[in-house]
Amino acid sequence: MKKIILLKGQTETLEFFSKRLNIYLKKYGYETFIYDISLGDEQIEALEEYTEIGNTVFITYNFNGISGEKIFLDAKGRLFFDEFYIECINIVVDHPMYYYKYYNSLPRMYKQINIDRTHREYMREYYKECDADYFIPLCGTRLKREIMPMRYKKTDVIFTGNFTPCNTFDKYITRIDKEYEEFYRGIIDDLISNNEKTMEQAFNEHLIREGIDVDNNELKRLHSNMTFIDLYVRFYYRQKVIGTIADSGIKIDTYGAGYELLKCKKHENIIRHGGVNTKGCIDAIYDAKISLNVMPWFKDGAHDRVYTSMLNSAVSLTDTSRYLAEEYTDGEDICFYNLAHIEQAVEWINRLLSDEELLERIAASGCEKTEKTHTFDNVTKELISVINKR
């Protein structure tokens, strides 16, 4: 059985994911070593002693540990994981275009897990040489053993996640000249009007329209320079959905930073709790009846918010994706709204809060289905199959 290395000390959410993986890897008999990168190189000697050459696997998220950190490089710039023949399994929970600069210096033994099937297609198209033909969706977490009955839940509608105003990204849109600004705003308008498109579809269509004919190597470089468009559109819809709900007279509890900057007519209906860590978000969802999700442009996957909501017996109210539409049924175990028809979210909330039987039935069905398919236990089993693949 392979020995496993995990990380802590990185982004709080990713550390939480790693700790959850650790629990279930141990459940299935794996020996693990959690390296705390916040301690610098203090644990390097212990890691060397733990490592069994050719029989050790490093599991990380978003290139943490393999993105040039000095603690994992020797005096000649050689990567620790290469020197000890350690296979690196990287779970990329964002679009791969965010990590363009790292693909030119991958570890010798590298596998990539994608959490959206369009991300896997992107890797097939632009990084054919990379062992990245894996799709494992994100999963949810319930920290408490018992489900809270709906009648005891104190929060009607909740959203967990930060907010950044769209004008934050204007400095990237206007950084060159008016022609570039018009080009970028054209892509943004296209994505808002045609929200079924992936980022790369919209980017490529507009590049072709401008007469820019380049190969895939140059395309993926250009994609990496336009990640701010992904963030702009994400927060555009986050503002529009939450703002529409608040303006309809529905109170929505937000857990995350930045909501004092969200513009809407009835801001008093946005109840701000400020930034909290992952556990704080999960605890808040546990006490909620309806948990809103606005997808970060995952068109064939889903955010972990969706699964965590259902595992904690809240109705998940979310814009849809191809993958979610395959896994769940609207009005039975989940509630979908369309980004082109945000009023559907308001209609669902009013209907659910006025019909406790329907609210409980959808929540119970979603919880039951998700417990079988989208937990860290399920993800760990799928990871084990990747670990064991030669």
Task: Record keyword descriptors for this entry.
6-stranded parallel β-sheet; 15 helices; alpha/beta; 42% helix; 15% strand; 12 strands; single chain; 390 residues; globular
Which percent bin holds the helix content?
40-55%
Please give the alpha-carbon distance between the first and last residues: 13 Å
Low-confidence stretches: none
Largest sheet, strands/sense/barrel: 6 strands, parallel
Counted by DSSP, the helix tally is 15
Structural class: alpha/beta
- Mean pLDDT across all amino acids: 96
Shape: globular
Biggest sheet strand line-up: 2-1-3-4-5-6
| Rg, Å, rounded | 22 Å
Q: Total strand count, please? A: 12
User: Helix and strand string, N-terminal first?
Assistant: EHEHEHEEHEEHHHHHEEHEHEHEHHH
Proportion in β-strands: 5-15%
How would you describe this protein?
The structure is a single chain. The chain has 390 residues and is α/β, with parallel strands linked by helices. The chain has 15 helices and twelve strands. It has helices spanning 12-27, 44-50, 80-83, 117-126, 170-173, 178-193, 199-209, 216-224, 227-247, 278-286, 304-311, 322-327, 343-353, 356-373, 376-387, and strands at 3-8, 32-36, 56-61, 87-92, 110-114, 134-135, 155-160, 252-255, 270-272, 288-293, 315-319, 335-337. Helix 6 (178-193) crosses helix 7, helix 6 packs across helix 9 and helix 11 packs across helix 14 (356-373). It is globular. The model has no long low-confidence stretch (mean pLDDT 96).
In short:
With 390 residues, the protein is of the alpha/beta class.
Topology of helices and strands:
Layout: E1 3-8, H1 12-27, E2 32-36, H2 44-50, E3 56-61, H3 80-83, E4 87-92, E5 110-114, H4 117-126, E6 134-135, E7 155-160, H5 170-173, H6 178-193, H7 199-209, H8 216-224, H9 227-247, E8 252-255, E9 270-272, H10 278-286, E10 288-293, H11 304-311, E11 315-319, H12 322-327, E12 335-337, H13 343-353, H14 356-373, H15 376-387
Parallel strand pairs: 1-2, 1-3, 3-4, 4-5, 5-6, 7-8, 7-10, 8-9, 10-11, 11-12
